Amino acid sequence: MTAAFVAVWRSPTGRIGLVLVVVVLLFSLFGPLVIPYEPNRLDVLHRFGAPTATHWMGTDNLGRDLAVRMAVGGQIALGVALSTIGLSLVGGTLLGIGAAYAPTRIERAILILFDVLSAFPPLIFALAIVALLGPGLDKVILILAVSMVPHFGRIARAQTLSLRNAPFLDATRVLGASASRLVMIHVVPNIMGPLVVLASMDIPVVITLEAGLSFLGIGVPPPRASWGGLLHDGYTGLTQSPWPVTFAGLMLILATLGFTLFGEALRDAIDPKLRASP
Amino acid sequence: MNDPLLQIRDLSVHFRTGNGTAEVLRHVSLDLARGRLVGVVGESGSGKSTLAATLLRLLPPNLARLDGAITFEGRNLLTLPPAETEALRGTRFAMIFQDPMTALNPVFTIGNQLVEFQRAKQPSASRADLRARAVRMLARVGIADPARRLDDYPHEFSGGMRQRVMIAAALLTEADLLIADEPTTALDPTIEAQIVALMRELHAEIGSTMMLISHSLGLVSQLCDDVVVLYAGTVVETGPMAEIFRNPLHPYTRALIACEIGHDVARGDRLASIPGEVPDVTRVPPGCIFAGRCPDVVPACREAVPELRAFGPDRRAACSRL
Amino acid sequence: MQPPLVEVRNATVAYGPVAAVVAASLTIEAGETIGLIGESGSGKSSFARMLVGLAVPSAGQVLFDGGDIAALGGPALLKFRRDVQMIFQDPVASLSPRMTIGRLLAEPLQIHGIDRAKAWPGVLELVRRVNLPETILGKYPHQVSGGQARRVGIARALVLRPRLVVADEPTAGLDVSVQGDLVNLLTELQRDFGLTYLLVSHNLNVVRAMADRFAVMYLGQLIEVGPARQIFAAPAHPYTRALIAATPRLDPERTHPPALLAGEIPNPADLPPGCRFQSRCPYVDDHCRAVEPPPAPLADGRIVRCHKPLAG
Question: What domains can be seen in chain B, in order of their start residue?
Answer without folding.
Answer: 4-92+175-317 (3.40.50.300)
